[in-house]
Amino acid sequence: MSNSTDHASSASPLDVQETIGLLLSRMEQFQQGMELLHDMTRLQLADWLTIEHAARVCDCSYDHINRAVGAGELPASDIGNGGKKAAYRISRADLNAWMERNKGGRHLPPRSVLKEQMPRYLPGVD
């Protein structure tokens, strides 16, 4: 009958190194997951969000949020960045309201309006 010391002595140094490498890799993945969880929790509690953070919260692109801010659809405060570039902050309440307003996407106008606009946007199409 073999005991645990016999088994431990039979493991090659290469097997031990591979196991340690695998464990270190898994620990790094776990740490990255914990950091992401921490960041997402912090974002969920924040009252004011950057455009990047608002995009993460809404699960959409930075450009989508930036266009909405630029078009005035999504209110944002420019806290300034030394005159170099706008540094927008979006309130959680405004972001939630914007999401509610855009629920269901944009709808096409009635057929009567489409028929009137077709020659302008699609000339030659009947």
What does this molecule look like?
The chain has 126 residues and is mostly helical. It contains 6 helices and 3 strands; from the N terminus they run ααβααββαα. It has a 3-stranded antiparallel beta sheet. The longest helix has 33 residues, at 13-45. The chain is elongated, with a radius of gyration of 27 Å. The mean pLDDT is 84.
Number of helical regions: 6
Indicate the mean pLDDT.
Answer: 84
Envelope shape: elongated
What is the helix content?
Answer: 55-70%
- The count of strands amounts to 3
Give the radius of gyration. 27 Å
Q: How many angstroms does the end-to-end distance come to?
A: 89 Å
Low-confidence stretches: none
For the sheet with most strands, the description reads: 3 strands, antiparallel
How would you classify the helix and strand content by structural class?
Answer: mainly alpha
Spatial strand order of the main sheet: 1-3-2
